[in-house]
Amino acid sequence: LNDDIHTIERCAFGGCESLEITSLPRSLMKIGDRAFCRCKSISANLPNSLNELGDAPFSPTNSNLTSESGRYKIINDLLIDVLNNELIQIVNQSNKNIIVPLHILSIKNYAFAGSGIETVSINNPNTQLGSNLFLGCKELIHIDLPTNLKEIPSYTFAWCDSLENISIPTRVENIGANSFYYCKKLSNITLGNNID
User: Fold this and answer.
1) Are 145 and 169 in contact (CB under 8 A)?
2) What is the pLDDT of residues 57-108, one digit of tens each?
3) What angle do CA 126, 118, 76 make, to 5 degrees?
4) Which of 68, 160, 167, 196 has minimal CB crowding within 10 Å?
5) How buried is 73 (Cβ within 10 angstroms: 0-12 exposed, 13-18 middle, 19+ buried)?
6) Per-residue pLDDT reduced to its tens digit, 164-174
7) Which residue, 51, 42, 40, is CA-closest to 24?
8) What are phi and psi for residue 188, nearest 5 degrees?
9) HEC profile for 101-148?
Protein backbone atom coordinates (compact mmCIF):
# COMPACT_ATOMS: atom_id res chain seq x y z
CA LEU A 1 0.00 0.00 0.00
CA ASN A 2 1.18 3.48 -0.91
CA ASP A 3 2.71 5.53 1.92
CA ASP A 4 0.50 8.51 0.97
CA ILE A 5 -2.68 6.72 2.10
CA HIS A 6 -4.18 8.30 5.24
CA THR A 7 -7.49 6.42 5.46
CA ILE A 8 -8.65 2.88 4.73
CA GLU A 9 -12.43 2.97 4.85
CA ARG A 10 -15.01 0.49 6.12
CA CYS A 11 -14.81 -2.97 4.50
CA ALA A 12 -12.25 -1.68 1.94
CA PHE A 13 -10.60 -5.11 1.64
CA GLY A 14 -13.28 -7.16 3.40
CA GLY A 15 -13.48 -10.74 2.15
CA CYS A 16 -10.18 -10.60 0.22
CA GLU A 17 -9.03 -13.89 1.74
CA SER A 18 -5.97 -14.30 -0.50
CA LEU A 19 -4.70 -10.75 0.00
CA GLU A 20 -1.28 -10.52 1.63
CA ILE A 21 -0.34 -7.27 3.35
CA THR A 22 3.22 -6.97 4.65
CA SER A 23 3.17 -3.29 5.58
CA LEU A 24 0.76 -0.46 6.26
CA PRO A 25 1.39 3.15 5.17
CA ARG A 26 3.49 5.06 7.71
CA SER A 27 1.12 8.04 7.34
CA LEU A 28 -2.03 5.97 7.96
CA MET A 29 -4.40 7.72 10.38
CA LYS A 30 -7.64 5.72 10.17
CA ILE A 31 -8.72 2.12 9.54
CA GLY A 32 -12.50 1.75 9.29
CA ASP A 33 -14.89 -0.95 10.50
CA ARG A 34 -13.96 -4.42 9.20
CA ALA A 35 -11.53 -2.88 6.66
CA PHE A 36 -9.50 -6.10 6.45
CA CYS A 37 -12.22 -8.53 7.59
CA ARG A 38 -11.46 -12.08 6.41
CA CYS A 39 -8.01 -11.10 5.12
CA LYS A 40 -6.04 -14.02 6.49
CA SER A 41 -2.49 -12.83 5.88
CA ILE A 42 -1.60 -9.46 7.33
CA SER A 43 1.92 -9.30 8.68
CA ALA A 44 2.10 -5.59 9.33
CA ASN A 45 2.95 -3.02 11.94
CA LEU A 46 0.33 -0.49 13.08
CA PRO A 47 2.02 2.89 12.52
CA ASN A 48 2.41 5.53 15.20
CA SER A 49 0.35 7.94 13.04
CA LEU A 50 -2.79 5.82 13.56
CA ASN A 51 -5.43 7.65 15.60
CA GLU A 52 -8.69 5.86 14.75
CA LEU A 53 -9.64 2.20 14.50
CA GLY A 54 -13.16 1.05 13.66
CA ASP A 55 -14.93 -2.09 14.82
CA ALA A 56 -12.99 -5.31 14.16
CA PRO A 57 -10.72 -3.84 11.49
CA PHE A 58 -8.77 -7.10 11.06
CA SER A 59 -9.46 -10.80 10.83
CA PRO A 60 -8.96 -12.74 14.10
CA THR A 61 -6.40 -14.87 12.24
CA ASN A 62 -3.81 -12.07 11.98
CA SER A 63 -1.28 -13.42 14.45
CA ASN A 64 1.56 -11.46 12.80
CA LEU A 65 0.10 -8.03 13.50
CA THR A 66 2.38 -5.76 15.56
CA SER A 67 2.14 -2.16 16.72
CA GLU A 68 4.50 0.78 17.08
CA SER A 69 1.55 3.02 17.97
CA GLY A 70 1.50 4.70 21.36
CA ARG A 71 -2.28 4.46 21.43
CA TYR A 72 -2.98 0.99 20.04
CA LYS A 73 -1.17 -1.91 21.71
CA ILE A 74 -1.35 -5.65 21.30
CA ILE A 75 -1.44 -7.27 24.71
CA ASN A 76 -1.97 -11.04 25.09
CA ASP A 77 -3.31 -11.28 21.52
CA LEU A 78 -5.81 -8.45 22.10
CA LEU A 79 -5.70 -5.16 20.20
CA ILE A 80 -6.33 -2.45 22.79
CA ASP A 81 -6.90 1.30 22.63
CA VAL A 82 -4.90 2.23 25.75
CA LEU A 83 -6.08 5.86 25.60
CA ASN A 84 -9.73 4.85 26.07
CA ASN A 85 -9.23 1.51 27.86
CA GLU A 86 -11.15 -0.17 25.06
CA LEU A 87 -10.66 -3.63 23.63
CA ILE A 88 -10.81 -3.40 19.83
CA GLN A 89 -10.54 -7.09 18.95
CA ILE A 90 -8.68 -10.37 19.23
CA VAL A 91 -5.85 -10.64 16.69
CA ASN A 92 -4.70 -14.20 17.28
CA GLN A 93 -7.40 -16.83 17.54
CA SER A 94 -4.94 -19.55 18.55
CA ASN A 95 -5.40 -18.11 22.06
CA LYS A 96 -8.47 -20.11 23.12
CA ASN A 97 -8.79 -18.79 26.67
CA ILE A 98 -9.15 -15.03 27.00
CA ILE A 99 -8.81 -12.99 30.16
CA VAL A 100 -9.84 -9.41 29.42
CA PRO A 101 -7.45 -7.05 31.24
CA LEU A 102 -8.94 -5.43 34.33
CA HIS A 103 -8.46 -1.86 33.03
CA ILE A 104 -10.76 -2.44 30.01
CA LEU A 105 -13.95 -0.34 30.30
CA SER A 106 -15.56 -1.29 26.98
CA ILE A 107 -15.31 -3.92 24.28
CA LYS A 108 -16.06 -2.85 20.72
CA ASN A 109 -18.61 -4.46 18.40
CA TYR A 110 -17.46 -7.72 16.76
CA ALA A 111 -14.32 -7.89 18.95
CA PHE A 112 -14.31 -11.71 19.10
CA ALA A 113 -16.67 -12.48 16.19
CA GLY A 114 -15.78 -15.55 14.17
CA SER A 115 -12.82 -16.48 16.35
CA GLY A 116 -12.04 -19.89 17.81
CA ILE A 117 -12.09 -18.81 21.45
CA GLU A 118 -13.41 -21.27 24.04
CA THR A 119 -13.53 -19.31 27.30
CA VAL A 120 -13.65 -15.61 28.20
CA SER A 121 -13.34 -13.94 31.59
CA ILE A 122 -14.31 -10.27 31.87
CA ASN A 123 -13.28 -9.43 35.42
CA ASN A 124 -13.88 -5.67 35.52
CA PRO A 125 -17.44 -5.44 36.87
CA ASN A 126 -18.08 -2.22 34.89
CA THR A 127 -16.95 -3.28 31.41
CA GLN A 128 -19.59 -2.56 28.74
CA LEU A 129 -20.11 -4.88 25.78
CA GLY A 130 -20.56 -4.05 22.10
CA SER A 131 -23.03 -5.80 19.81
CA ASN A 132 -22.19 -8.91 17.77
CA LEU A 133 -19.40 -9.48 20.26
CA PHE A 134 -19.19 -13.29 20.05
CA LEU A 135 -21.10 -13.70 16.78
CA GLY A 136 -20.18 -17.05 15.23
CA CYS A 137 -17.80 -18.15 18.01
CA LYS A 138 -18.66 -21.78 17.41
CA GLU A 139 -16.22 -23.10 20.04
CA LEU A 140 -17.22 -20.76 22.90
CA ILE A 141 -18.23 -22.88 25.90
CA HIS A 142 -17.91 -20.51 28.88
CA ILE A 143 -18.00 -16.79 29.64
CA ASP A 144 -17.82 -14.78 32.85
CA LEU A 145 -19.80 -11.58 32.22
CA PRO A 146 -19.18 -8.31 34.11
CA THR A 147 -21.21 -8.26 37.31
CA ASN A 148 -22.48 -4.67 36.78
CA LEU A 149 -23.52 -5.26 33.18
CA LYS A 150 -26.88 -3.63 32.37
CA GLU A 151 -27.42 -4.77 28.79
CA ILE A 152 -26.59 -7.69 26.55
CA PRO A 153 -26.60 -6.06 23.09
CA SER A 154 -28.07 -7.52 19.90
CA TYR A 155 -26.45 -10.65 18.45
CA THR A 156 -23.92 -10.85 21.31
CA PHE A 157 -23.92 -14.68 21.34
CA ALA A 158 -25.61 -15.45 18.00
CA TRP A 159 -24.39 -18.70 16.40
CA CYS A 160 -22.35 -19.76 19.44
CA ASP A 161 -22.92 -23.43 18.67
CA SER A 162 -21.11 -24.90 21.69
CA LEU A 163 -22.48 -22.63 24.42
CA GLU A 164 -24.63 -24.75 26.76
CA ASN A 165 -24.92 -22.63 29.94
CA ILE A 166 -24.80 -18.95 30.80
CA SER A 167 -25.42 -16.82 33.88
CA ILE A 168 -26.89 -13.39 33.25
CA PRO A 169 -25.69 -10.88 35.88
CA THR A 170 -28.39 -9.63 38.24
CA ARG A 171 -28.11 -5.99 37.07
CA VAL A 172 -28.93 -6.78 33.43
CA GLU A 173 -32.14 -4.95 32.46
CA ASN A 174 -32.23 -5.61 28.72
CA ILE A 175 -31.32 -8.51 26.45
CA GLY A 176 -31.09 -7.26 22.87
CA ALA A 177 -32.67 -8.73 19.76
CA ASN A 178 -31.25 -12.07 18.65
CA SER A 179 -28.69 -12.09 21.48
CA PHE A 180 -28.76 -15.90 21.65
CA TYR A 181 -29.91 -16.58 18.08
CA TYR A 182 -29.06 -20.10 16.92
CA CYS A 183 -27.31 -21.16 20.12
CA LYS A 184 -28.28 -24.74 19.36
CA LYS A 185 -26.88 -26.32 22.54
CA LEU A 186 -27.91 -23.60 24.99
CA SER A 187 -30.02 -25.42 27.55
CA ASN A 188 -29.49 -23.56 30.83
CA ILE A 189 -29.78 -19.79 31.42
CA THR A 190 -29.62 -18.29 34.88
CA LEU A 191 -31.41 -14.93 34.68
CA GLY A 192 -30.94 -11.89 36.86
CA ASN A 193 -33.83 -10.18 38.66
CA ASN A 194 -34.03 -6.93 36.66
CA ILE A 195 -34.85 -8.10 33.14
CA ASP A 196 -37.88 -6.28 31.73
Assistant:
1) yes
2) 998 877 788 999 999 999 999 999 999 999 999 998 888 999 999 999 999 9
3) 65
4) 196
5) middle
6) 999 999 999 99
7) 42
8) -140, 115
9) CCCCCEECCCCCCCCCCCEEEECCCCCEECCCCCCCCCCCCEEECCCC
